[in-house]
């Protein structure tokens, strides 16, 4: 009986909300309804519901079907594949060679393998036989690497020499034996593969409560952006913020205030959102998504990356690209 009453209360509340939305639409058109919906996306409760049935071992991930993790402490590369239940199951663990020197890569030629979250940007099949039959190029240095002043390039996942001898380390790349590399090539789509390189087996897991809060803040940032609340929007940026192209925090603030003064109507849609805890960094997350932006003066459709620090419920953007 109590369950029936509870269900009726829920249906009655939902009916009242629907009626209010319809009345608002009838009186004011779509704008107020859209604003209401955009505000609903900022609620933690909504994201709690979305996350309930998901496996969040690697974070909140919408766009990757494969995850590669490189654990430098035991020299391994592990492939995880998303199953029909949206869980990532370990498919294969390969022995791997990594950089000669321990620690995170800082500069060109330091013989270290970087620690971070990367994409695979390209497959190379015509290369020197020293690197085996093929190689996957990574996105090092990424936005967070550049923010921290790291440099260098050419970090690959590649094979072993076909004809030459080699040492049991690399200059910074990740190397696995050639048959394993060819097997890996058959199992992954590089456009849908995420690479996480860490210094130890233990990973920085984000619990569902944290992920729901991060998603709520992401959409609160979007809400302030859409509805021209410049103060709330800029409060999401760390005083230590630097944009990917080197624009300083002070210049960025002036630039955004100038744009917000136009009071333009905007349409902003986020798709394929991924939130991944950054390895070996406390309370830092990489947030990536497809952004569709449209206003009277500007249109953009493409990839967006935010590096966010999240401490005690405070969401601060360190850099963006």
Oligomer: single chain
Radius of gyration: 23 Å
Largest sheet: 8 strands, mixed
Q: What CATH architecture label of the largest domain applies?
A: Roll
Q: What is the share of helical residues?
A: 25-40%
Strand order of the largest sheet: 4-3-2-9-5-6-7-8
User: What's the mean pLDDT score?
Assistant: 91
Derived from helix and strand composition plus strand pairing, the structural class reads alpha+beta
Under CATH, the topology of the largest domain can be stated as Nuclear Transport Factor 2, Chain: A
Task: Identify the notable features of this structure and list them briefly.
Nuclear Transport Factor 2, Chain: A; elongated; disordered N terminus; L,D-transpeptidase catalytic domain-like; eight-stranded mixed sheet; 2 domains; alpha+beta; 321 residues; single chain; five-stranded antiparallel sheet; 13 strands; 30% helix
What does this protein look like?
The protein has about 325 residues and is α+β, with helices and mostly antiparallel strands. The chain folds into two domains: about 30-55 and about 205-320, Nuclear Transport Factor 2, Chain: A, CATH 3.10.450.50; about 65-200, L,D-transpeptidase catalytic domain-like. It is about 30% helix and about 30% strand. It contains eight helices and 13 strands. It has helices spanning about 1-30, 30-40, 45-50, 145, 180-185, 210-225, 230-235, 250-260; strands spanning about 60, 65-70, 75-80, 90-95, 115-125, 135-140, 155-160, 175, 195-200, 265-275, 285-295, 300-310, 315-320. The strands form two sheets. An eight-stranded mixed beta sheet has the order 4-3-2-9-5-6-7-8, covered by helices on one side.
